[in-house]
Amino acid sequence: MNNIEKNYEDFISTVSHELRTPLTSIRGFSQTMLTSWDKLDDESKKKFLKIIEEQSNRLIKLVENMLSVTKLNCTEKGLIYKETDIAPLINTVVSILKNQYKNHKFEIDINAKTPTILVDRDKFQQIMTNLIENAAKYSDENSTIKITSGYCDNCEFVSIKVSDRGIGIKEEDYEKIFTKFSRIDNPLTRKVQGSGLGLYITKNLIEKMGGTISVNSHNKETTFEVKLPAYNPENQARVKCRQ
Ligand SMILES: Nc1ncnc2c1ncn2[C@@H]1O[C@H](COP(=O)(O)OP(=O)(O)O)[C@@H](O)[C@H]1O
Ligand SMILES: [Mg+2]
Known about the structure:
- The chain is of the alpha+beta class.
- The protein has two domains: 3-72, Helix Hairpins; 81-242, Histidine kinase-like ATPase, C-terminal domain (Heat Shock Protein 90).
- The protein is 49% helix and 18% strand.
- The protein is built from seven helices and seven strands.
- It has helices spanning 3-36, 42-72, 86-100, 121-137, 187-191, 198-208, 237-242, and strands at residues 81-84, 105-110, 117-120, 144-149, 157-164, 212-218, 221-229.
- The strands form two sheets. The protein has a five-stranded mixed sheet, with helices on one face.
- Strand 6 (212-218) and strand 7 form a beta hairpin.
- Helix 1 packs antiparallel against helix 2.
- The protein binds adenosine-5'-diphosphate and magnesium ion.
- Magnesium ion binds at residues 130, 134, 194, 198.
- Residues 130, 134, 194, 198 line the site of magnesium ion.
């Protein structure tokens, strides 16, 4: 088997596994509700519907991530660059994730003087969602996740940091985690669901938009730093040529 076939086979087996788990639970809970409707109390019905909703959301996220893997191999078409204020978008992402990770604390500290950036807004939200969700997934409930961006004057790039105090990442794994399907084996990674695609997609999207991402994990604190181009009238030309 050559490399392409091997990658393709890995891809199909990961995807089938990732799709099967939520689909099986959606089917199971809807069948239970249909066959035992009269015997179930309201609370159980609500609980089952909640699971169906959560699992559908998981499927949607997975499909979105998989679609962006295929799109990444295509051209830059499809990215819509706009001057973007990061604070409201980060607030939106955090308020969605707060529903899912109710026991984590989220601290957002974005300097009012952080410049606007030039990005595709949907992709920026996808990047922030992947990073903040990882921070929550790989840290204990009740711990704090910080999202910060400092003041910068006339800078070319805006730096956004996402930090957690979770399981950490060994220096020898810093590069590996950004590759396709890679997950670092440990008891917590085994417990939480994932496809190992999030950081691969995140890095690709950031680089496509002219930015960089790096990771640092020391003294129990893991920080992902994203740098994206600050908006200025000159790089605004990209808006026209890339649309
Ligand atoms: N904040 C973090 N702290 C510790 N490990 C992390 C963190 N973010 C990512 N990782 C590690 O990197 C791997 C790849 O991350 P990702 O590509 O988002 O895939 P997934 O979350 O689906 O497993 C994770 O499986 C985990 O082992
Ligand atoms: Mg992830």
